[in-house]
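Action item from last meeting closed. Structure (347 res):
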């Protein structure tokens, strides 16, 4: 009898806890809807109009999910009207980690400006965006599969690009404070993308095989002030002597690979400039393409001595050839090779 009564007590307690949890979750869901409505109104007051059609709230019992079908965004930005739309959006917040929001994005996506100089579309098989550190965003993580982007990009004309996989993480600068007026805000990044077509690389080495790219480093002087356009933001960064510090980078393509470290910035003509310490694997066919022949190791030693400023760097793997990559006066150089590839201004 005592065991039976104990079981009844336990079941009763569990029922009370479940009922309490359900009530708490329902209240949290209601509050989430109310807060979203308030946020939408506040954004509209600032000239940014968001819509969330067919809104639904779920995720019981351990999360809150807010989903929309065909959400839209319209605003004035970069001196003109912009419109954006996505097929589906789900925002998920785990109750045990309320400072992180996970967004699942459903294709397709479209973005256009009112003068139609920019009109871009994108599709993908899977795409997620995680924002951590709310209410101030501390980190951003983006993951996607089979992404395709195409359209007209302003002065750049019609462009297109694809990636079979994308994995990127950014750690944003801390919010500025009055006591940190002279601080150097830094954004760190880790980016990996597979299956990228890279036209300048095609021109350099021949062929049209896609490349796998990985970049890790930081962006110094990341505070762009009150810039109203991307061009203003980049110019503010350039005038502040901003730099991109590459701690590591790798491009792999059709059996060839280049790894590099170094520092990049922009010159007065808004063109990338800098020097990278690079190592190449599978460079033989490329050397022959530019009329350079001979034993790989001997060529590596000679070229590194002549153009690397001294003793050649020790290769990190068998067959690696150490050569500097230079971006100077709008031209790309690889060791002694004048690639003939012009590096145009970014803006």
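Sequence:
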């Amino acid at each position: 009898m005592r065991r039976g009564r104990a079981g009844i007590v336990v079941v009763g307690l569990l029922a009370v806890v479940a009922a309490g949890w359900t009530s708490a979750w329902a209240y949290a869901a209601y509050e989430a809807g109310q807060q979203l409505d308030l946020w939408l109104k506040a954004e509209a007051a600032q000239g940014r109009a968001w819509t969330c059609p067919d809104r639904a709230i779920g995720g019981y019992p351990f999360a809150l999910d807010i989903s929309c079908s065909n959400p839209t965004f319209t605003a004035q930005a970069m001196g003109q009207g912009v419109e954006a739309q996505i097929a589906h959006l789900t925002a998920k917040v785990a109750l045990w980690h309320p400072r992180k929001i996970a967004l699942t994005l459903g294709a397709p996506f479209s973005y256009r400006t009112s003068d139609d100089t920019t009109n871009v579309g994108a599709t993908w098989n899977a795409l997620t965006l995680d924002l951590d550190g709310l209410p101030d965003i501390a980190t951003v993580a983006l993951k996607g599969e089979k992404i395709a982007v195409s359209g007209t990009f302003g002065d750049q004309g019609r462009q297109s690009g694809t990636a079979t996989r994308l994995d990127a993480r950014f750690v944003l600068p801390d919010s500025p404070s009055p006591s940190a007026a002279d601080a150097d805000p830094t954004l760190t990044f880790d980016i990996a993308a597979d299956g990228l077509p890279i036209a300048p690389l095609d021109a350099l080495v021949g062929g049209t095989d896609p490349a796998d790219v990985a970049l890790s480093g930081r962006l110094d002087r990341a505070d762009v002030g009150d810039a109203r356009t991307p061009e203003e933001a980049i110019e503010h960064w350039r005038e502040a002597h901003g730099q991109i510090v590459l701690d590591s980078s790798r491009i792999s393509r059709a059996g060839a690979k280049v790894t590099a470290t170094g520092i990049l910035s922009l010159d007065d003509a808004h063109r990338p400039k800098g020097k990278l310490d690079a190592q190449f694997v599978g460079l033989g066919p490329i050397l022959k393409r530019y009329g350079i022949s001979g034993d790989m190791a001997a060529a590596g030693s000679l070229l590194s001595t002549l153009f690397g400023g001294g003793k050649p760097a020790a290769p990190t793997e068998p067959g690696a050839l150490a050569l500097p990559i230079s971006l100077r006066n709008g031209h790309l150089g690889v060791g002694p090779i004048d690639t003939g590839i012009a590096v145009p201004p970014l803006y």
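Note appended to the action item: The mean pLDDT is 85.
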